[in-house]
Design goal:
Chain lengths: 139, 139, 139
């Protein structure tokens, strides 16, 4: 069985956001899959998807602060600056973290570890709503 | 054909470890797949999976040393510190490197490059055993 | 339907290169897939695949310059140096960016965002031609 769904995430502030519940609510065929894979792909190159800790919100804050150290604004060699100081760092973060995650499905559920959740990395100050393509495939 | 296997990796020291053989030994249906994909997912957010050089152990040492420079312990802005100095850097490394790898299967074998192997990134001092979900899908 | 194709990319200079068209030209079954996934895997550990901005070439230059800051040559702790100063940084970049990308296929086309393209990250000075395994699966 294949199912593909376009999911629109509401606009969020710059930083990392836990979106596991919001995603799962839209995966209506998930309970029917005994064995499969969920593939999530974000159709933007200034945001990212990643898997990380689902309990303590300071993990998301620390992640944002550290990614800003690794990929600071206003690096003197940046040439792609017309769309704002947050734009080129956002592109680099999106490649470091990735545009997609894929998660095993086992007996109708995402087979995530107990502490794992799905993060949206919003790397722009005003990124607006974001579009994700969710592709479920399994049997 | 779909097959899903839970693989338990023994506890390993902090750093990068080549696990290609240990993974392949548990993929009993691999020889039956002419064309497919192996998806490996680690159910933890302080460890990671990645593909890298399979021959020289100093690559793994250099990787560990450099990741420790990129993501040092005791950054002054870290708030998520209750579980030890190695915890928040481990979370960041797990997102930079990723929780999953997917590898093409061709004529019953992983279609890796001659120098490629599967690495476990163990980012905690005492991470304990780690669980991987291996999903094979192909024909 | 499954289809696997080995794609040989011509040798390119160190840096990031947009390869979307070159890849798509070789995916002959793509128009027949209503719903599926394209998986691209590079069989090398000193190059990478990632998704990023497809319009402004300075994004690729800025990406290269910034990755060279994150992962500089001649770090004093590097032991894996026999194959040149660019070798160990190339291995680290390949793990940070990743060896594979997977992209949803919708009604015969890659379902990329309007600004997204497929990048080859060539991390060696003289990496030579590079081999990619393209696996298409869908219905």
């Amino acid at each position: 069985m294949w199912q593909q769904t376009e999911i629109t995430l509401k606009a969020r502030s710059r930083g990392f956001h836990l979106i596991t519940k919001e995603i799962c609510q839209q995966l209506v065929v998930l309970p029917q899959i005994d064995c499969g894979i969920l593939h999530l792909f974000i159709k933007h190159c200034s945001a990212s998807l990643t898997i990380n800790e689902n309990a303590d919100p300071t993990v998301r804050t620390d992640m944002e602060n550290h990614l800003n150290i690794i990929t600071p604004e206003k690096a003197p060699y940046f040439q792609h600056t017309d769309e704002g100081d947050d734009d080129m760092p956002a592109h680099i973060k999106s490649s470091l973290l990735g545009a997609s995650v894929s998660i095993p499905i086992t007996f109708g559920q995402l087979n995530l570890g107990i502490w794992q959740g799905i993060y949206l990395g919003e790397h722009r100050e005003h990124g607006g709503s974001r579009t994700i393509i969710a592709t479920i495939h399994g049997e």
